[in-house]
Amino acid sequence: MPAGLFCERIRHPLGDPTPLHAHAEGQLFWLRDGALIVHEASGRSTFTAGQTGWIPAGMPHWTSGHGRVDGWACRLDTPFAPALPDTACRLEASSLLPALLERLASDEPQGDARNRLVGVLLDEIVAARKVQCRLPYPAEARLRRLADALIATPGDTRTLAQWALFAGVSERSLSRRFPAETGMTFERWRHAARLDLACTRLARGETVQDVAHALGYSTASAFISAFRKAFGIPPGQYGRLTHENQPDISKPE
């Protein structure tokens, strides 16, 4: 494989978190199973089974896995990272991209054959649509404390006025400052955080009913409707997709 590009299998069967670190190269990855959250100081990006993710070089982050995380990753030096942003994002690519990653992670193609596969991979990266999937955190300490509480207790149904009291700011100030810091209204951010958490809970094998209750939805049908609107499939189908190909970790390969 050309210098500056290296592909490998990734597995986190127990969902173990990684310590804070940064890659010297950019990292492209595709998940076959599970969900992976990339945590930054100023936000988090969630990637789920069937999705391709990008982590730029030099970005301090740590990751947490949910479910049996399994897939392939490719480390790319800057010259081999065409048209990729300097923030974490999702790539909407064809099914050829994960197949290329899997093939390149093996030792079978060599020489010119491998170089040709790399060329196709780079073409697929360039053609893929880059989608921001980051949930930004507010920087102001009181608003960050509020955001952390919303993630820790997503089923809490307190109103905007009650959360403003929790944060120690006026309701009007919260309504104005939260969008200024995150680009999202308070309600939109809370909704996005709940759906973000839904993906990781479903990847861990929780039922649709349990997830709906934990996230504060009045009924399971309300949660199903919100999830389908956001992701195009019902949560039950998503849960099956994240588990149907899970590796058997009781036996070595």
Describe the 3D structure.
This is AraC family transcriptional regulator. Pfam families: HTH_18. Keywords: DNA-binding, Repressor, Transcription, Transcription regulation. It comes from Paludibacterium paludis. GO terms for molecular function: DNA-binding transcription factor activity; sequence-specific DNA binding. A hairpin with a 2-residue loop joins strand 2 and strand 3 (43-48). Helix 4 (160-167) crosses helix 5 and helix 6 (186-203) packs across helix 9. Strands 1, 2, 3, 4, 5, 6, 7 and 8 form an eight-stranded antiparallel beta sheet that branches. The protein is α+β, with helices and mostly antiparallel strands and 253 residues long. The model is unreliable at 245-253 (pLDDT under 50). The protein is globular. It folds into two domains: 5-134, Regulatory protein AraC (Jelly Rolls, Sandwich), CATH 2.60.120; 137-241, Homeodomain-like (Arc Repressor Mutant, subunit A), CATH 1.10.10. The chain contains nine helices and eight strands.
What structural category do the secondary elements indicate? alpha+beta
CATH architecture of the largest domain: Sandwich
Order of helices and strands: EEEEEEHHEEHHHHHHH
How many distinct folded domains?
A: 2
Helix segment count?
A: 9
Helicity, as a percent range: 40-55%
Domain HTH araC/xylS-type: 141-241
InterPro entries: Homeodomain-like_sf, HTH_AraC, HTH_AraC-typ_CS, RmlC-like_jellyroll, RmlC_Cupin_sf, Tscrpt_reg_AraC-type_HTH
GO molecular function: DNA-binding transcription factor activity; sequence-specific DNA binding
Keywords: DNA-binding, Repressor, Transcription, Transcription regulation
